[in-house]
Amino acid sequence: MSPLPPFDHNVHTKFTEPPNPSWTFAQKIENTESGRKWLEGEERGWKVINTDEEDLTARLYPLMISAIVPRPIAFVSSVSTTGVENLAPFSWFNMVTNNPPLVSFCCTNVPQVKDTPTNVRNGLGFTVNIISEPFIENANVASINAPPEFDEWTISGLTKAPSIHVKAPRVKESAFSMECELFQAIDITHPVSGQITTTMILAHVKYIHVRNDVLNERGVVDITKYKPIARLGDISYGRVGDVFRLARPVWDREKERIENVLENGEDQ
Q1: 49-99 per-position pLDDT tens digit
Q2: 3-state DSSP call for residue 172?
Q3: DSSP assignment, residue 91?
Q4: Which residues have C-beta within 8 Å of that of residue 90, sequence separation ≥ 6?
Q5: What predicted TM-score, i.e. pTM, was given to this entire model?
């Protein structure tokens, strides 16, 4: 039996106040209880790592993926020129810009080039689907290191839905799917070895499919209904817990307060 407690399906995302709602301009972190506790960790110092040291190469991957978190996951559906369909998750993924609408994901080429970076270059298009809690196991199985001719759809238990613009199907179970064309493929070359270790894919989003039940009255996705999954370190995943809103300050509205703090040391 697993030593871990079972997944709690009754936990729901809720909105709360930000961690320090009374924070003011130029306030030091040690002015809050949580800040003081956080700063206590500095007493143990810092570990400094030189990434050029060859013997650390194998350790950089687990360290970086454990620290650069949480990461959204691109669940990419593509098809080869011979018609073999491929389904694979990538957590080196994010939005690039909305004008034009671009997303990016990276595929490692070590020890060999994966099917996805090969397929997305063939002009047939591909889809990027977002993973939600109810089908994370289905999506995770598609990360298996199967041979190129293997179709991950067959073991995923997921359903193919036809796309409008591209040949690759989208994942019907995904509440948010993007039909994409290749905008640019950037091969990342190691500056010392000269080896192409990774390929960054810039995907041009041509069509979006979003389930009506996850949209709010403003026409944007409601995070409490969306239930997206994030990638963490090693083989760990996370879900969205408490959410807080924090407005971005606007200079024209805050100029007087900021100047007062800088001149008098207090916020009025």
Answers
A1: 988 886 667 888 899 999 999 999 999 999 999 999 999 999 999 999 999
A2: coil
A3: S
A4: 73, 74, 76, 105, 106, 107, 116
A5: 0.93
